[in-house]
Amino acid sequence: MIDPIYELLWVQVGHAHDLTFVGALYHPPSPMYKTSDILIYTDTTVLQIQNSYPQLHIILAGDFNLLPESEVIIRTGFMSVIFQPTRGDRYLDRVYVSDIYYSNLKVVKSAVKSDHMAIVARTISASIM
What we know:
Number of strands: 7
Number of helices: 2
């Protein structure tokens, strides 16, 4: 199910029995849709992915603006891994995971011109370059 009104892109990475789906979501400050609609759409796409690939990992990240974090967590069952503000004192940019543990997660000044902070996450198995 793809609906162009929502800015949600899913990418499959990995191979065979080690698949991860990464979702990038942008929820604008003044969307053309009801907040409940993007939550339903996100929930539906997550369920479709989970039904097709039951043993996979899922990461959902992006600029959620004022989308209620509690609703995202309730609908997806994911865990939030961002515990500090990403724009001023607000938590606009977020990362949710189905089961991946990050050994190192930081909110840092963005390398590009932006008033948002950048999120850098590394899993336990990631090698240092």
